[in-house]
Design brief:
- It is a single chain.
- With 351 residues, the protein is an alpha/beta fold.
- 40% of the residues lie in helices and 13% in strands.
- β3, α5 and β4 form a beta-alpha-beta unit.
- α2 runs parallel beside α15, α4 packs parallel to α5 and α5 packs across α16.
- It starts with a helix and ends with a helix.
- Bound molecules: 1,3-dihydroxyacetonephosphate and iron/sulfur cluster.
- The site of 1,3-dihydroxyacetonephosphate (13P) has 12 residues, from α4.
- The site of iron/sulfur cluster has 14 residues, from α6.
Length: 351
Amino acid sequence: MPTEPELFRARCGFEPLAIGYGGLYKTGMNYTRHSEGIDQDIDPSLDLEQEIARLKKEKNAIILAHFYQVPEIQDIADFLGDSLQLAQQAKKTTADVICFAGVHFMAETAKILNPERIVVVPDLEAGCSLADGCPVDAFRAWRAKYPDAVAVSYINCSAAVKAESDWICTSANAVRVVQAIPPEKQVLFAPDRNLGRHVMKHAGREMQLWPSTCIVHETFSERKIIDLKERHKDALFIAHPECEPAVLRLADYVGSTTALLRFVQTQEAKTFIVGTEPGILHQMKKAAPDKTFLEAPPQEGTCACNECPHMKRNSLEKIYLSLRDLSPRVEVPEQIAVRALVPIERMLSLS
Ligand code: 13P
Ligand code: SF4
């Protein structure tokens, strides 16, 4: 049996960056949380919500936030959504400034859609293990092995990888995107192998998969979920397609964050075991206050490894500073942005 690094080398033709807990991703990432990393004093008497509202008006700015943000950020967002809805909203906006409370690839997508607007992020270090696990040179080399294939890249990748792709998809539309490709065409799917396997099953189609994973969704423990289901026999287990296949097999429903949120509102069940980042629970509890939501347990019972360390780098303080200073900004070189826009627009025109 070849080892995982051997498989990776054979498939991708380059050295894995790191393997083990978290799958394949860049080493040396310095995870900090919440407000760590702020190198300037903020007057503690400031009412941050009020100051942010004032700055938004002054700079004609909007805040787009992902469901995995901490509740206090979700509560001040102008628009809250999954990665597809956030891209759609970024395309629509007429604001001069977009403050993107999510992770880097999402803000990059907003910038590609809005080259003339300023896009700021609370923390430039908020990345994604999937994007980090798919360096553009290696992606290009992989594509070159299949010159006639169509490359579909999950939106969780860098702008440079988007520029080398034919289609972009999100977890909300990946099956639809793949089904839109002529059946005689070979399909390459990167970078999330778990979403790729889920799409293969639902689109009824073989694809070549890039082998990266999400460090958050791969941590859920199959055994502990079985135990929890046993203890809550009436509960439905719902999961994001980035989870491992063994976990997805246990799920009563699989969907993007927005799809999961809609599902809990429309079902009669009163208890849900939620197999995704727990940030979404804030909206689930608001939307269905009479229902109970249990976090699916990660493999290590004591850690908070089902929280995305990237999403959780953002804080109200950092949002305030980014709007005040219009920094840090997300920039995409024009020659990459122009090419990356094509597969993004192709996806948006289908969604
Ligand atoms: P959604 O497309 O469901 O928002 O997922 C994005 C993501 O990063 C999940 O980990
Ligand atoms: Fe990336 Fe996973 Fe975090 Fe989503 S939850 S941003 S896929 S590391």
